[in-house]
Automatic annotation (TrEMBL):
It comes from the Eukaryota. One of its GO terms (molecular function) is histone H3K4 monomethyltransferase activity. It comes from Pleurodeles waltl. It is an enzyme of class 2 (transferase). Forms a ternary complex with TBK1 and ZNF268; the interaction with TBK1 is ZNF268-dependent and leads to TBK1 monomethylation. Keywords: Cytoplasm, Inflammatory response, Methyltransferase, Nucleus, S-adenosyl-L-methionine, Transferase. CDD domains: SET_SETD4. The keyword Methyltransferase applies. It is found in: Cytoplasm, Cytosol; Nucleus. The keyword Amino-acid biosynthesis does not apply. This is SET domain-containing protein 4. Its main location: cytoplasm.
Amino acid sequence: MIRSRGRTCRIRRRKLVGRSVACGVNQSHEPEYIQLRKWLKQRGFEDTNLQTAFFPGTGRGLMTTKSLQAGEPIIALPERCLLTTGVVLESYLGDYIRKCKPPISPLLALCTFLMVERYTGEESQWKPYLDVLPKSYTCPVFWEDCTMSLLPEPLREKAQEQITSLQELYSSAASFFSSLQSLFQENVENILTYEALRWAWCTVNTRTVYMKHPQRHCFSRELDAYALAPFLDLLNHSTKVQVEAAFNPESKCYEIRTRSSHRRYEQVFICYGPHDNQRLLLEYGFVAGQNPHCTVCIPTDILLQHVPNTDKQKNKKLSLLKENGFLYNLTFGLDGPSWKFLVALRLLCLGAEEFTCWKKVLIGESVSNKNEKKTLEVATKICIQLIEETCTAIEKISHWKSDKLGLEDQLAMVESLRLEDLSILQSSRDILESLKDATD
Ligand SMILES: C[S@@+](CC[C@H](N)C(=O)[O-])C[C@H]1O[C@@H](n2cnc3c(N)ncnc32)[C@H](O)[C@@H]1O
């Protein structure tokens, strides 16, 4: 017999159905996570409230088995669990690092330790941690050239710069790597390869927490603020939460406290910083939906295409913008064109007879209705040009999705980024249209 379930039951069911979207599949019983917990326990970390789980949308993360209130600690990881340059210096690598001239960077020291320990395999003291690290990363340094070509220009340039600096790090490490030959039976060149460094570099870049260490003479002068934090580094990012995170010198633990509340069995998030999607993609290899920090950058060459060569003051205007920092970081946002972009355009749109007013323009004043109209017209043209470019890229992505096997994840990520850009640009275009109507 089917019994009517009653109102309370229906409400409870509705709540559960709603929540199941956010709920993850518990993975804590899998051997590698059991080993990790055992290893952490030996190093003084015991926690029963967080469990490894797989969540739709964000992938692997941590779920809480009790509700968390704002202000409560999420996790406190003892110093003995952290992998820092201090640990590296105390290891078998310490003497090699101290002897190296010129000194290597703290980043290279940490990367080398990860590469060697990964190669060591079964014998590594860090094996339980290494076993749960991703085998590969989704950051652009791992991308194929064809996917890279679909990124918006300013991001493509930054991704290219990142690849170049990683290649330079690899070349500059050559003599340090060969000094380590005595640690291995196999040729060191086959162990400490570019691919191994790329993996280690992404591990450090996507997973370390900020923990400033004193400057050490055996390292070059780059900032040393890295700590790899096993288990804690399974926490995913959300723009919607706020946390306090720092190493507590009294408890000797790296502690994270939430300023948001989490329900039981929900994923616990932290915030990696107020990053836009371009930064998230570049540094962490993912894109966050509905990211309030997102803007679309306007490449300088697109801006310049809209300044006529017949404008006799063109060069003077450009050098004024450059000197005053108005030529870069110009953006469209969900709330319209940025103030900086409008100032730059107002100056570029000044007629010859108005040019003496340039100082007023640079402090954000509007000088005439004519100038205002022209500014909004050019801003709309640039916005439409970027909308068209974005739509062309989205179309290309949808063709490639069926053609280019193996690139689905990379293409899906560029697609999310481009779709987010499109909605920002469309919103900016609508705002510009209403501003234009208001000046008529
Ligand atoms: C510190 S780790 C977090 C744990 C990670 N998900 C894992 O399985 O090891 C950072 C990485 O997690 C992923 N990530 C973090 N937050 C995410 C989110 N909101 N959506 C999708 N991926 C996310 C990205 O790949 C990022 O580089």
